[in-house]
Design goal:
Distance between the termini of chain A: 26 Å
Strand content of chain B: over 45%
Largest sheet of chain A: 4 strands, antiparallel
Strand content of chain A: over 45%
Number of helices of chain B: 7
Number of strands of chain B: 32
Largest interface: A-B, 38 and 35 residues
Radius of gyration of chain A: 20 Å
Oligomer: heterodimer
Structural class of chain A: mainly beta
Structural class of chain B: mainly beta
Distance between the termini of chain B: 44 Å
Number of strands of chain A: 28
Largest sheet of chain B: 22 strands, antiparallel, barrel
Radius of gyration of chain B: 24 Å
């Protein structure tokens, strides 16, 4: 067994087997499906004519199988598969341009239901207090019809819609609060809406930098919001900023300013905050007072398309030219060691742990 | 392609070969010189479709070309954008001409064949291979020439064609033509409309946003001033509204309205050894795009206005030498929500020499220089030759060609790239034609090396390093790749007479490699194999046809990991002439498309219709 093998089993052990104790005390383990454990990758699919896919990566990170939704259900998932939310035994697959959420068993990937009402360009989903919250852009030609659709997570019945500011995108749940980042859809925005899952109302709106593209929470319950700034092609370019927000007071406690760059893909691994600028990954402790100047990892990706850090491991996807299969590379980010690179579907935009 | 199909094809071909007879009827398509196009292109493959085949064609021009040439169409649906492609080159690498005037959109560089009604033209000529010297920008893969014909035969005629088909498809084409010895007038009107709501294979998805209509009105006037001078005026207007079809996985509520107007005044002077043609044209194209039909107030518009002046002087020095010189001036203007009043002025001079060394051997030498206020166009040169020996004609050509970036590429609001260079290509071709007793076979093999090809793509880290504007992730056009295309085309045509039936068997096969030079991967949507076969049989009163189209696997990703499945299509049709009236002989016809109800798509996730029917009646007076 070479070093890499050992490393891989370490990843597997840390990520997926943490809940398993010794074999002797436990009853014989019945797997709940072919896809239990391991990693799921959301692939948007080709931009115009096609379907998104789910890639399953085995827990030893050595193999990947693309298209598991179609394998199990015989039909395509839909056009522009944006994101997924795992809850209980279910996975909620949000398909933006088909305007649906496919509900599957997360371990077998067999379809269990569908939500196709009261959705219009759905983006991301979270579950809080038994309810599924889905950000929606609404009609992309209109800047004033954006909303969050709410469903009962057990019956999938529609509950209500919460009207919000332009371009709601990623969400972070802390307690009963849902922090919604308004990246801006086809436009640009600079707000975080704080939605109460008790009243289903927007409690407050926090102003941040332009284009909040990613959001996370650290082990001290601080909310972190990364803003990319308005891109250069608009002719009204602004640069990035990173905000640390107190999740009790909802006040911005610390703002880091980026000089002439557009950071993206914030990911928080307990007390470590990581993000990327271009294809380079940077990292700092959550107590840092200044942004890091040294690159943590040069991914060398053609087009770095997502980052996720967990237990010292970093998962980075490369969308390449968006017209061919992408890839997922797994690092031990502190030692900067590459553990494995596997193939994904087209435009991989997120990594999820199926355990 | 299955065994039965191949066997059927072989049996048809062989039976017609063995049953070969002399003195058969005139063929639908001819390989004959048609004006300057072939005089100065002796080494090229040129196919002409005459009026009778255009008018008897029950389907669109794209369907005709699809079944009778090596061209393939990138078709997004029945009435959606459908652009022709030669030899694995892109949609904007086919130059399309209307009476000698380039009509490819200034905005996107393409011609949508679903916007052309065959009623408005009398002849279509397909010229494979580079033609930028004579035809300018875009003639890299080949060119398609749509023409109206003017004759002074003192006849008056009416031609009406009307059809009704599946999915509430209605078509009416009417043409009136009259001429004296000095005047010619032709007026045509065409309309087609359809609900086009076919089912997407065996899914529960229908093409429920694909309804369309288009109207065309055109007129041609000729004035023969005297034996030397001919003045002609061509007018053409098309307007269409079409829903943009949903895909298998994504619904659509969008719609596009188009209007195209063309006006051309031509003065032709011919005397002795000299022929001079002056053309002045004005073209106006406009589109309106609605993201949602239900929100008619939310739309985006764009238009282009092109003014052109073309002058050609053709002079015969002696019995073996001819010289053609030309001047092109053009002024283009683009406007709309994404392009604000952008203009381009360009002019070009070119010269071609045709030398007929003997009745067996002739060659052409040609050069062109174009100047533009927006970029440098390379100096172009070409050489082509033909040598005839016995029943064989050997052909060759080499040429350098180019395509200028479109207005969208250059000027699209904030994302366009004004620093783009023209694309260029260097190409060569060898051809062999065999003609005997009405049998005709052609064999062509080509090589095209293209540089500075333009592609819209999100800026990658490498692009940004290389200076792409707009920042990481911005979708911008870039002169980003090189391509190498090579392949072979085989054509076969065999006419025979069997038991009073005139039978024509015709097949085209093409093998096309079109690779990204760096990755060696086949370019998107270029089928390596394409085969079409057509059998027509007729007596005086009755005619029937069978079409077969095999479209090979074509890739939809740049790593060639995903592809559209190959398909075989079969269409059949019959026509019968009714002799129930004394003077008028209506022809009634029925055509069945996709008779085996095959599930197929040209573009992935955009299914084409299953079996469908069309009934038509044609009256000529």
């Amino acid at each position: 067994m070479n070093i890499k093998r050992i490393a891989l089993s370490v990843v597997a052990a840390t990520l997926f087997l943490a809940s398993c104790k010794s074999d002797t005390d436990m009853p014989v383990y019945e797997p709940q499906g072919d896809y239990e454990g391991g990693i799921l990758v959301v692939n948007e699919g080709p931009f115009q004519n096609g379907s998104g896919t789910v890639t399953y990566v085995s827990s030893d990170l050595s193999q990947s199988v693309d298209g598991i939704y179609k394998t199990e259900n015989g039909t395509d998932l839909g056009n522009i598969f944006q994101s997924m939310f795992l809850y209980g035994t279910q996975a909620f697959l949000v398909v933006n341009n088909s305007h649906v959420i496919e509900v599957v068993n997360r371990f077998t990937f067999v379809k269990e239901g569908i939500i196709d009402e009261n959705l219009d360009n759905p983006r991301y989903a979270v579950v809080v207090n038994g309810k599924l919250y889905v950000t929606n852009w609404g009609d992309t030609a209109s800047e004033s019809d954006d909303f969050i659709a709410v469903y009962d997570v057990n019956t999938l019945a529609y509950v209500t819609s919460i009207s919000v500011d332009l371009g709601p995108e990623k969400m972070q749940v802390i307690g009963n609060k849902i922090y919604v980042a308004h990246e801006g859809a086809y436009g640009f925005n600079n707000k975080i809406s704080v939605v109460s899952s008790v009243t289903n109302e927007v409690d407050t709106v926090i102003e941040v930098g332009d284009v909040p593209n990613s959001i996370g929470v650290d082990s001290a319950q601080n909310l972190w919001v990364l803003c990319g700034g308005v891109p250069a092609w608009t002719g009204a370019e602004t640069f990035g900023s990173l905000h640390r927000i107190n999740s009790i007071s909802d006040e911005v406690e610390k703002t880091f300013i980026f000089d002439a760059s557009h950071p993206d893909y914030l990911t928080v691994d307990s007390a470590n905050v990581l993000y990327a600028v271009g294809a380079n990954v940077y990292g700092m402790p959550n107590a840092a007072t200044e942004l890091p100047t040294e690159v943590l990892i040069e991914t060398g990706a053609d087009f770095l398309y997502s980052l996720r850090a967990s237990n010292g491991f970093l998962f980075a996807t490369d969308a390449k030219d968006f017209s061919s299969k992408g890839s997922l590379t797994i690092y031990k980010y502190l030692s900067k060691e590459i553990l494995s690179t596997v193939s994904t579907g087209i435009s991989p935009n997120g990594v999820y742990f199926n355990n | 392609m299955n065994k039965i199909t191949i066997t059927t094809f072989l049996i048809f071909s062989l039976s017609t070969l063995f049953a070969q007879n002399r003195g058969v009827e005139q063929l639908d398509e001819v390989l004959l010189p048609s004006s300057k196009l072939s005089t100065y292109s002796v080494g090229f493959k040129i196919t002409t479709f005459n009026d009778s085949i255009l008018k008897s064609n029950h389907q669109s021009l794209s369907a005709l070309l699809q079944t009778a040439s090596s061209i393939y169409f990138k078709s997004y649906g029945v009435a959606m954008l459908s652009s022709p492609s030669f030899r694995g080159t892109g949609a904007s690498h086919t130059a399309v001409f209307w009476n000698g005037i380039p009509v490819n959109s200034t905005l996107n560089g393409q011609t949508d064949f679903n916007m052309i009604n065959s009623v408005s033209i009398d002849e279509m000529t397909v010229r494979a291979g580079g033609g930028s010297i004579l035809f300018g920008s875009g003639a890299i893969g080949g060119s398609i020439h749509l023409k109206n014909k003017i004759d002074f035969d003192s006849k008056t005629s009416h031609h009406l064609l009307s059809s009704i088909g599946s999915y509430n498809t209605y078509k009416v084409n009417y043409r009136f033509k009259t001429s004296s010895k000095k005047r010619f007038t032709q007026v045509s009107f065409g309309r087609m409309s359809s609900d086009n709501d076919y089912r997407y294979w065996d899914s529960d998805v229908y093409n429920n946003n694909g309804d369309f209509f288009n109207n065309n009105l055109s007129a041609v006037f000729g004035f023969k001033l005297n034996n030397e001078n001919l003045l002609s005026l061509f007018v053409d207007g098309t307007m269409s509204e079409r829903g943009l079809s949903n895909t298998l996985t994504a619904p659509s509520e969008s719609k596009q309205d188009d209007e195209n107007y063309k006006l051309l005044l031509e003065w032709k002077y011919t005397k002795d050894r000299l022929s001079s043609v002056l053309k002045m044209a004005y073209l106006y194209d406009q589109f309106t795009y609605y993201a949602k039909r239900s929100s008619p107030d939310l739309f985006s518009i764009g238009d282009s206005k092109n003014s052109l002046l073309k002058y050609q002087l053709d002079y015969k020095l002696n019995s073996s030498l001819k010289i053609l010189s030309g001047l092109d001036l053009s002024y283009n203007k683009g406007d709309g929500d994404s392009l604000k009043g952008v203009t381009r002025t360009s002019y070009a001079v070119y010269s071609m020499l045709n030398h007929r060394i003997s009745h067996r051997f002739q060659y052409d030498v040609s050069v062109r220089k174009e100047f533009s206020n927006t970029f440098d166009v390379p100096f172009l040169f070409g050489l082509d030759a033909a040598y005839k020996k016995g029943d064989f004609v050997y052909k060759m050509n080499v040429s350098k060609n180019f395509r200028v970036p479109t207005f969208n590429d250059l000027f699209w609001a904030t994302l366009g790239n004004p620093n783009l260079k023209p694309e260029s290509s260097l190409q060569g071709e060898l051809g062999l034609v065999f003609q005997k007793k009405g049998i005709e076979t052609t064999l062509n093999t080509f090589y095209i090396a293209s540089n500075d090809l333009i592609k819209w793509s999100p800026n990658t880290t490498t692009d940004v390093k290389n200076g792409a504007g707009g920042g990481l992730g911005a979708w911008t056009p870039k002169n980003i790749y090189k391509a190498e295309n090579y392949g072979t085309e085989i054509g076969l045509k065999i006419p025979v007479n069997i038991a009073g039936y005139k039978l024509t068997s015709q097949a085209n096969y093409s093998y096309t490699i079109a690779e990204d030079k760096e990755t060696k991967m086949q370019l998107l949507y270029v089928p390596k194999h394409k085969l079409n076969y057509k059998l027509t049989a007729h007596t005086k009163q009755f005619s029937t046809f069978y079409h077969l189209l095999y479209h090979g696997k074509s890739f939809t990703t740049t790593d060639n990991s995903v592809f559209v499945l190959p398909y075989v299509l079969h269409n059949i049709g019959v026509n019968y002439t009714l002799n129930i009236f004394k003077k008028v002989h209506p022809v009634v016809g029925l055509q069945v498309n996709n008779i085996l109800n095959k599930e197929y798509a040209v573009i992935s996730y955009r299914p084409m219709p299953g079996i469908n029917y069309q009934f038509q009646i044609q009256i000529k007076i």
